[in-house]
Hints:
Blueprint: E1 7-9, H1 11-19, H2 23-36, H3 38-43, E2 44-50, E3 54-59
Helix pairs in contact: 1-2
Amino acid sequence: MAAHGDLATTVAMQLAKPLKMNPRQLAENLKAALLAAPAFARWVESIDIAGPGFINIKLKAAAKQ
């Protein structure tokens, strides 16, 4: 859904059980790792964590062109 961002993933919830981690905390860890990557920061405007661990990604306008 566009209201949540341009991209959304449930990867944190899918990986939480096999990794024996809290899905919300795993999503926060993934967010931090993604934001630390220069290429990711170049194209992404924001990353939000919603609910139990949904990761919603909003792209910068330049990434959409």
